Amino acid sequence: MIRLSVLDQSVAVTGRSADASIRETLALAQHCEALGYERFWVSEHHSHPTIVGSAPEVLMAAIAATTQRIRIGSAGVMLPHYSALKVAEQFRVLEALAPGRIDLGVGRAPGSDGRTAQLLNPQAHSAADHFPLQVRELQAWVGGNELPEGHPGRGVTAEPGGPTAPTMWMLGSSNYGAQLAAHYGLPYAFAYFITDGQGAEEAIAVYRDMYRPSPQHPEPQPALCVWALAADTEEEAWQHFSGRERWKIDRNRGALGPLQSPAELAQRPYSPAEQMQADQLRRTALVGSGPQVAEKLRALSDALEVEELVVITWAHDPAVRRRSYELLATHFCAVPTRAA
Description:
InterPro entries: Bact_Lucif_Oxidored, CmoO-like, Luciferase-like_dom, Luciferase-like_sf. By secondary structure, the chain is an alpha/beta fold. It has a single domain, classed as Luciferase-like domain (TIM Barrel, Alpha-Beta Barrel), CATH 3.20.20. 46% of the residues lie in helices and 15% in strands. It has 14 helices and nine strands. The chain has an eight-stranded parallel β-barrel with strand order 1-2-3-4-5-6-7-9, surrounded by nine helices. Strand 1 (3-8), helix 1 (18-35) and strand 2 (39-42) form a beta-alpha-beta unit. It starts with a strand and ends in an 8-residue tail after the last helix.
C-alpha cells in the first residue's frame, strides 16, 4: 500500500500578496488532514521571489495548533545556517505542542543564493563541511541522548523533554544525503521533483545497501518527493500545469517570480526553443486526470520500490490544488472525504 503525504512550499502567485500564501499553506494542511494524508511538510527558502516559506518551524507551530492527526514536518531545515542545539530546542517545543506528530527533515543545501546564505550564517562558506557532525549532534539532542565523551556539548540538554521525540529525516537529491541517512540510520526522502528523477534509482539503492539499523529505525525507510497535479479532466490538468511549466522555462534563463495564471500565460506564447522545453517537461510530468496521475504514481512507486510518496502541487488557484489532493486521496488515502 502506498502512503501519500504532502509537501507545500508556500508559493507566491500573481494578484495575491506573499503573506496570503502562508495562510493558504495553513488552510491546505487542514484540508489534507481531512482527506487522510499521512504527513504535511513545509519547506525553507530565503529571499526567493517564488517560494516564500522562510521559517518552517514557525509555520509548523500554527499547523500543529489547527490540526489533530496529521504528522507535521520540515522539508527541510537547512541545517548549515543554524546551531544544531537551537534547532533541537525548536523541535522539542513543537513535539510538546503535538506529541508524536513532528518530523524534523534536514538538508545541506542553502535554500538561497550565496549572498543570502552568507547573511544567514557568516561562516556559510565552511558550514556545509560540518553537516555530518551537526546531524550527529542534532540526532542526540532531539532524542534526549548523551553526546560522546569529550564533546563540548556533553551534559547539555535540549528542552523541553518528554516521552516522545521528533522523527528525524534526511533530505537529499544525490548520493551524499543517501549515504549520510544510511550511516545514521535515518529515514531518507529523495527530492525527485528537483532532479526530474535523475539519480533517484541510484540514491535509493545506495541508501538501502549501506543502511545501518538504528534503534528507532531498524529498517530503511525511503520516500520520494514528487511534483504532481490532478484535475477532473486531462485537458484541465494540463491547463493548470501551464504555470509550473512556464516557471521552469523562465527559471532556466534566470528569471524568477510569482506563479502566473493560465489566463496570463495565454498572452505569452512560447518561442520555438521554449516550446521544445515545454514538450520535454510534459513527457515526464505527473499530470492528468485523477486516475491517470494515480497510475503514474503507482508505476513510480513500483519501479523504485518506495512505499511513501510526498506530493507537491503548484497552482495559481488554491481551489485547483485542493481538488488535486482530493482526487489523489480517493486512490491512496485510507479515509478520503470530500472536504467542503
